[in-house]
Amino acid sequence: MDNNMENKNGKIQATITEEVPEWKLNLAYFYTENKAIIKRILIFALFFFDLTVIMIGGTVYVNYRAGTISDRNYLYALPKNLVNQMAKAHMVPKDLIMGEVLVLRNTEEKNNLLSIIQNDNTNWAVKKLTYAFVVNGQELDTRSTFILPQSNKYLAQFNAPLGTNVDLKIISLEWERMRDYTAVSYKNNIKISGAEFVPNQSSVISGEVNFTIFNETPYNFWEVGLPIILYDQYAEPLAVNYAVINNLDSQEEREVSVNWQEAIYRTVTSVGIYPEVNLLNKEVIMRVKAGPGDPPGLELKSN
Q1: Which end of the chain is least crowded, N or C, by CB within 10 Å?
Q2: Same CATH fold, 184-284 and 97-177?
C-alpha cells in the first residue's frame, strides 16, 4: 500500500512517521529524572541574577550619590578656593588699639583727660571717629576726628569735671580703604625739633613751650594741629595742650611758642609734639590762589 493515499475528498494524507533521534530521548529522560534539581538550579540562577542586578544597581547608586556630594562640596568650595585668604584678611581692618584714659590735673575744680588710639592698619584709615569721654557715668561733649594708617591719635578733653571713673566711648567708626597714598605718604614729614618747656614765675602763665616746626612735604597746609604733651622723668604725661599753626607752606621752617596757662605741679623733663593734618581731605591743602567763591580766609599765598 502506498504511504500517500487519497481520501474520499481527494486530499492527500501524510502517514510517514519519522524516527525520534536518540539525543532527544536522552534529553527527555534526563529532564524527567532531574526535573526537581533543574527547577532548583533555575530558581537559584534567577535569584543570583536578581541579587547581581541589585548589587550593581546599589553600587551605581552609591557611586552616583558620592559623586553628587563630591561635586556639591567642590562647587561650594570653589569660590573659597578662588579667594586668596591672606589677601582677604587685608580686606578687613584690624581693630583700633585703645589706650587707657589718663586724668591730668588742671585746676582744683577741673581735670584734663588724655587718651591715645593706635591704628595699626596699613591699608585702612579712620575717615571719621565719633567719640565722647565719660566721667562718673556722665557723657561729655561728642567729638569727631580722623586717624591715618599706621599712626596714633591723641584725644584730649579739657576742663572735664572731677571724677575717678573715666572712660572713652566710641560712638561711631567709619573706615576708608586706602587706594591713593600720594598725600598720606607724607604723614610723618612735618618735623618738630628743639621742643622744650620753659617755666615762668608769672601768676598769669606757668611757662611756655618753644619749638621749631618744618614742613618737609610738597604741600602748603591751611592749618596743622599740634597736640602738646609734657612728660615727667618717668615719661608719664603731666599735662596736655593743643595748638594750631595756620598757613604752613611747603619747606617752611617756623619758630613757635605756646603759652601754658595751667599750673604745672611737677618738673617737666621732656615735651612731645605730634603734628596732625587730615591728609584724607584734599581741602586741607592750600592752593596758590584762592578761587572765586572760596570762604573768607583763603587768601592769596605764594611759594
Answers
A1: N
A2: yes
